[in-house]
């Protein structure tokens, strides 16, 4: 299962030391005639030190893919709850295969942790969720996908550098513009990375002189580890821990961006379901489905998951999956308060906008800004401020 495109929080980096020259000021940045747009991309690539022949090999046959545009505008997986999504993607099959693959590639994972500080369960969870351990890597032509999204004026600042990166990969012999396929958003390989990141963090894990993140598991796993390290991974520290919470907790203190020392959470009655709380670390108490659903302490390494993918549901599921692969038990059986349908969520967002809150796009998705607004309104109304919107709250508004 391939999730929606990662919205990388980091600023786009220079892909190679030779690619340091500014793009032509006259280059068409997005929209307009597609062939003229590609001519501008070629000019930019050449200005950045890439060969004209590599640009031609990459771009000459590129086409707009309407299916890519449709996918970009309908990312429905973001509307699933944490329990629904995590139960769907963390199957017994994936748990068994995850354990088997960690054993099969033990030497690669040992090298990844030694070199980059990232433990095997963390890499393996991404490997499983992104492509089912390399089995489902996507069948969209990578160049067409990147050209389509670069030409589209919704997010050209994200995708145009990736199209230049694809030209660089063609020049290196690591991408075939006609045959290389991947996700609809241009991500390639077993852990689904964009071309610029492959160029920056690519690792030749099997020693063949190339970085082949599609066919070589060692290449993909080491490259993924290097990328995770670049996002700020802190070696030797936890990332997520399931906890139990007392019924009289101050719920307004929960949620991302409100860290306290883990020892302070323990003093307030928060207790781990397994292992020990890392008392010296800061941690946020997150409640994906409110105070009656699963509860987790999110340590600083959880921020790396949010840089990988900004969907709270996806990142929490990926981090939880990694804890399971590391030996944590299945989350406790809880019965959250009923949530909202997509239509109800849109109604709620419209009401919040009318009250002066910035929830971003009214899209029926419980994103970070909607959660923050819900928590504030709950506090004002005297509701438990756990940031989980319910039909009762909607009726009250």
From TrEMBL:
Report the residue ranges that make up the Peptidoglycan binding-like domain in this protein.
343-397
- Source species taxonomy: Bacteria, Pseudomonadati, Pseudomonadota, Alphaproteobacteria, Hyphomicrobiales
Q: Report the Gene3D superfamilies cross-referenced here.
A: 1.10.530.10, Bacterial muramidase, PGBD-like superfamily/PGBD
The superkingdom listed in its UniProt entry is Bacteria
What GO molecular function terms would the record report?
peptidoglycan lytic transglycosylase activity
Q: Does the keyword Signal apply?
A: yes
Residues in domain Transglycosylase SLT? Answer: 34-322
Protein name as it appears in the record? Lytic murein transglycosylase
Keywords, ordered alphabetically: Signal
GO annotations under biological process? Answer: peptidoglycan catabolic process
Pfam families attached to this UniProt entry: PG_binding_1, SLT_2
Name the source organism.
Answer: Roseibium hamelinense
Q: Does the keyword Signal apply?
A: yes
Q: Which NCBIfam families match?
A: MltB_2
Q: Where is the signal peptide?
A: 1-27
Recorded hits in PANTHER family, A to Z, give: LYTIC MUREIN TRANSGLYCOSYLASE (PTHR30163:SF8), MEMBRANE-BOUND LYTIC MUREIN TRANSGLYCOSYLASE B (PTHR30163)
